[in-house]
Amino acid sequence: MSSLVAIIEFTLNRVFLGSPGTGKTTVAKLYGQILVDLGYLSNGEDTIGCEAIINKLEDYRLTVKHLRELEIDPRQHVPFNFLFRGPPGTGKTSTARKMGQVYYDLGLLSSAEVIESSATDLVGQYIGHTGPKTQELLEKSLGKVLLIDEAYRLAEGQFAKEAMDEIVDCITKPNFFQKLIIILAGYDQDINRLININPGLTSRFPEELEFASITPDDCIKLLTKLLQKQKSDFGLKINGFDLDALESPRPEFTKKLRSRFTRLTQTANWANARDIQTISKSIFGVAIKSMRDKKIAICEDLVISSRSAARYASANHNIQPACSL
Ligand SMILES: Nc1ncnc2c1ncn2[C@@H]1O[C@H](COP(=O)(O)OP(=O)(O)OP(=O)(O)O)[C@@H](O)[C@H]1O
Ligand SMILES: [Mg+2]
């Protein structure tokens, strides 16, 4: 594990200082496990800017560990219900999918399974249908994580309100209290709306994980990482993969790219990491078509070419790009 900790990317690096026997190794191992659970180490996912989330989960892990040492039940001291809020493509769903493993490893769930659901799985079609339907889903999720994605749909209509009321009511009952993890995920304004129409929600879901928009500089980092992944996936199959434009960028090019991303991140419907994945695929698609002698080159012009940006814009938003990368 210590070697795993050593290879974590620089944004996640930590220095563990202290006298002998003060738990540096244990803490480092715990930190490594959180990163493994979240997929940052095990499957090489190229995640950028999620430190705050990782730190929070790391805090829970330490809390649980220390309380266990004191033979105190940790359940009272870590949250079981979460609101995941943030703009599109910032990792709400993908992080929620990993929470089962995190809580399972903490010994707080009997399974690492995450049950993904939406309003349709909770909301009934006739009077008296919603309560039992919601209860059934909660029962199915006992010992697991119940992810209710696109939570805005629970703010629409009377039956949806009944479903929320049922959840709010059930999770304090002994059958369900601290026996499953419930995550409500959505955009900021949708979560706010949900809170406004369900006054009991805030006290039942005091834990909010905020997923932040990716900054222009982090957009550049993520784009570089995604293309670097392509480069390493191609490995020996090709005679060369020139990614110098992004790996050793000229300062003027970084400046240009930063300003393009600044404008792009301000366009309506910008979906953060998801859109950067699309841009990366577009750039790579053009590069592979232009391959010569099994050599791939991603030059500055290609990175900021209107071709890749136009493809991105029309594929994703059915609009002309407000700015081209
Ligand atoms: N900070 C990040 N760094 C790198 N990749 C990320 C990051 N956040 C999300 N991704 C990737 O972007 C894609 C979309 O993420 P995800 O579906 O979890 O976003 P979301 O917040 O649920 O979006 P939406 O609000 O539209 O449902 C996934 O492939 C995910 O791995
Ligand atoms: Mg999502």
From TrEMBL:
InterPro entries: AAA+_ATPase, ATPase_AAA_core, CbxX/CfxQ, CbxX/CfxQ_RuBisCO_ESX, P-loop_NTPase. Keywords: ATP-binding, Nucleotide-binding. The keyword Iron-sulfur does not apply. It holds the Pfam family AAA. GO terms for molecular function: ATP binding; ATP hydrolysis activity. It comes from the Eukaryota. Residues 78-215 form the AAA+ ATPase domain. The keyword Nucleotide-binding applies. Belongs to the CbxX/CfxQ family. PANTHER family: AAA-TYPE ATPASE FAMILY PROTEIN / ANKYRIN REPEAT FAMILY PROTEIN, AAA-TYPE ATPASE FAMILY PROTEIN _ ANKYRIN REPEAT FAMILY PROTEIN. This is DNA, SC023. The lineage of its organism: Eukaryota, Fungi, Dikarya, Ascomycota, Pezizomycotina.
